[in-house]
């Protein structure tokens, strides 16, 4: 792959700040134009090195992250970001590379689009992710924490604590899914219902995305991930959250 070097480009607009990590200069500038026309404030960088330098001094509302990058690739970057940040991440993958999409979700990406992508779809996915973040902030004065099996989930602070009081890191998508389960304990929820309740009806086009997110939640909350006693799969039905849930 040819490594392209270009200067950092910013565009004065009015809305959320979007960091685009894309080494193809033509695609990057197209992204910037689409996002700017949609009212966002895009910033372009071409590598992990540029991204890291920028994140040390500036904050962003969302990251659009290409998988194929010079030096450190997008999957490695996603894993590293998730170790310390819950910023929404949309992965950009090559068409047909299912393994990249699945790995991206398993490493903590919130959503993905495939190249060549429809600009309207990308903008819709960005807006959907940002709405989830905004709705969580707007709800701070309303919902009370919920508890299940000794765990505590707080919709206000968007935090999850285990029975020992240790905070467990969740991605935005994982938190929204677990909260949807906690608000519907004992009910069989189809993938379509989970998509509607947790994501407002918009997520990556394949249902596999839900399965990957739920697999990651299980790894974090199940006493025995192989037993799946908290989130059970209902054949031909979906999933059911089995613990009793109480509001504090």
From TrEMBL:
Keywords noted in UniProt: Activator, Cytoplasm, DNA-binding, Phosphoprotein, Transcription, Transcription regulation, Two-component regulatory system
Alphabetical list of Pfam families matching this protein: Response_reg, Trans_reg_C
InterPro entries in alphabetical order: CheY-like_superfamily, OmpR/PhoB-type_DNA-bd, Sig_transdc_resp-reg_C-effctor, Sig_transdc_resp-reg_receiver, WalR-like, WH-like_DNA-bd_sf
4-aspartylphosphate carried by residues: 66
All residue ranges annotated as the Response regulatory domain in the record: 17-130
Any Gene Ontology CC annotation: cytosol
Matching SUPFAM superfamilies: C-terminal effector domain of the bipartite response regulators, CheY-like
PROSITE patterns for this protein: OMPR_PHOB (PS51755), RESPONSE_REGULATORY (PS50110)
Subcellular localization: Cytoplasm
Domain OmpR/PhoB-type per the UniProt entry, residue ranges: 143-243
Major location (coarse): cytoplasm
GO biological process: regulation of DNA-templated transcription
CDD domains (UniProt xref): trans_reg_C
SMART domains, per database record: REC (SM00448), Trans_reg_C (SM00862)
Membrane-spanning intervals of the chain: none
One Gene Ontology MF term: phosphorelay response regulator activity
DNA-binding region positions on the chain: 143-243
Protein name: Regulatory protein VirG
Source organism (scientific name): Bradyrhizobium ivorense
